[in-house]
Amino acid sequence: MTTLAPSSLIKKETALIRFTVLGSSSSANAILVESSDARILVDNGFTLKKLTETLNSIDMKPEDIEAVLVTHEHGDHVKGVGVLARRTKVPVYMTRGCAHAARDRVGEIPELRFFESGETLAFGSLSATSFSVTHDAADPVNYVFSAGKARLGLATDFGHCSQLARARLRGVHALIVESNYCPHMLRTGKYPPQLQQRIRGRMGHLSNEDVQHLLRDIRDESLKLVVLSHISRDNNRPEIALALAQEAVKGYDVEVHVAPPDRATPTFEVHP
Ligand SMILES: [Zn+2]
Ligand SMILES: [Zn+2]
Question: Which listed ligand is nearest to 198 at the C-alpha?
Fold first, then answer.
């Protein structure tokens, strides 16, 4: 005979991740990732004032953040990291290459902690496994977060979706992915050829079509939620990115959302 545990004893919340994209554009990025006992920020391109306002809009304050994880040293991801770290003494995690390259931009960080790409960082029930990506930055990484059986993938700021990135992102239940540019708009837009080449190159950004390829590759019964982020104001339109991503997961039970550039998304839940 099987004895079932009373439902109140089943700690469902340990198998749950919540996330809020606080902002996502070529000027400022920050993502809040939470589990039942951890609250971390991935990148912070915001001033302390703007971050505080955005956190207040979801009933939080900068002091509530327990750790900041950085993907890479570009200004739109680290501009606000130093000020936040000095104000709240929050520990900041970076690869050594990133810390070295970000030094002038972020200044002194009281609690700077290094990790090697590929390492898993643990914060209570929430763990963050980093993986290397190809981007024109020093030792850039992305992360797969897990808590219990729930898994959330982050895929931002890379120009080429490597085997490693695909392997890491396969099987996630939710994915935040940059859908940076529309190749046609980039080609016919106002950016000089050199900058166009940078964006389009292997060390640049993911296009709407790249996202389609990635989604077609990793879509399976696990994937339930996709949030498109880091959409270029100049070289893309949210509705184009959305339509192409939706097309890629057609026939699968996947919700697709677009993160607005200047305000927080709703808080999404990741269920296994
Ligand atoms: Zn960026
Ligand atoms: Zn970047």
Answer: 2
